[in-house]
Amino acid sequence: MSAPTATGLTNLLGLTRPQLEEYIAGLGSKSFRARQLMNWIYKRGEGRITQMTDLAKDFRAQLAQCAQVRVPRICALQVSADGTRKWKLEADASQAFEMVYIPEPGRGTLCISSQVGCALDCSFCSTAQQGFNRNLTTAEIVGQVWLAARELEAAVGGGPEDDSEESAQVITPLSGRIISNVVFMGMGEPLANFRNVIPALSILLDDFGFDLSRRRVTLSTSGLVPQMYKLAEEANVALAVSLHAPNDALRNELVPINRKHPISELLAACWHYLDEQNGRSVTFEYVMLDGVNDSPSQARELVRLLRGHPAKVNLIPFNPYPGTRYRRSPLATIQRFRDELIRGGVLATIRRTRGDDIDAACGQLAGRVIDRTTVRLGNKTIGLAVQS
Description:
Layout: E1 10-11, H1 17-26, H2 32-43, H3 57-66, E2 67-68, E3 73-79, E4 85-90, E5 96-104, E6 107-111, E7 115-117, H4 126-129, E8 132-135, H5 138-157, E9 181-184, H6 194-205, E10 217-221, H7 225-234, E11 238-242, H8 248-254, H9 263-277, E12 282-288, H10 296-306, E13 311-317, H11 331-343, E14 347-350
Parallel strand pairs: 1-2, 6-9, 9-10, 10-11, 11-12, 12-13, 13-14
Antiparallel strand pairs: 3-4, 4-5, 5-6, 7-8
Helix pairs in contact: 1-2, 5-6, 7-9, 10-11
C-alpha cells in the first residue's frame, strides 16, 4: 500500500488495482469505485478528485480528505533540436532525477528512471558517476508517465500547462497515443528497486491503467541475476540487458556487477525469462567504446555467446560526458562490428543517437544527486542496495 505523502494524503498513483480496491473498501465503498478512479486518472489524465464527476459527490468529498494524485515537480525542461525532451524532476529539496521523451514516426518512447542516481558503478555511464541516493517510490515511477502524458498533450494542443514557443516543436507520433512505449532505461537499476518497480509495471499494463502492451514496456537491467528469476515469476514485459562486453574479463571492468554474476549466469537467467514468459527475444545493449570493445575479434566472441539463441544486439554509439576517459567508436567501426554479428547469425542494429545536444542520450542522464551513498552493487555489500 502506498504510504501517505508529506501532506498526510495517500497518493493514488502508487496503488495497483487490487491495492486501490482494498483502499476503497477501507473507506466503506464498493470495489467498482477503484475502476472508476483508474479510468479518471489514467485514461482521462485527471488529477483533481473533485472533478471526477461520475463518482458520488459524498464519496468524492470523503476521498479528497484522505487521498490525492501527486506527481514529481518539474525542475527544468530541455528540448533537443531533434524533438527529444528531457525533464529534470524533483525527488526532494536537494535531489533530482530525469526522464526523456523520444518522438519517432509511428511511436513515442518515454525513458523513465527507477532510482535517484545508480549504485552499479558502470565505468562508461554518466549516471553511475553521480553516485546513488535512494529508490524511487511506485508513485514517483508511475508519476513520470502520467506527468509526461499531460505535458506532451498540453504542448501538442497548446494547452495551459505549456504554451511557450519551445513547446510547439513537433512531438506527434502517429500511433494513436503520444506515449506508445515506456522503457526503464533512465537513471538507476530497475531490479535493485524490485519492490517498487513491479507494481509500477502492473499499473502500466493494467487495462484500467495505462493499458500498454507487454511488448511496449521494456525493463533494462545490468544483470542482477536473482532478481531476473523473480521477474520471470511476477512480470511479463520486454527484457533488455546491458551486456557491453563479450567476455568476463572486460565486462568485470565495464560493468562491475559481472564480478558477482558472470556472463554465463546472466545468459542462463535471460533464457529462463524467455521460457517462462513466452518472450520473443532478449535485446542485448552494447555501447561502442573506441579501442575497448569494438574489434572484429570481439564481435566474433559475441557471436559465439549468442548464436542460436533468441537474441538481438543493439549497438549504441557511446555518448560522451565531462570527465570520461572513453571515446565513441567511429561509425565505420560500428558498422563493421554489426556486419560481423550479422554474418555470424546474430541480429544486430545500430541505435540512432537522440538528444545528445541536451545530454539526454543513452548513458548521459545525471539528474542531481547530492546526498550519495558509497554502496556499490559490484562488491560484497550488494544486499544493502537491493529492495526485493
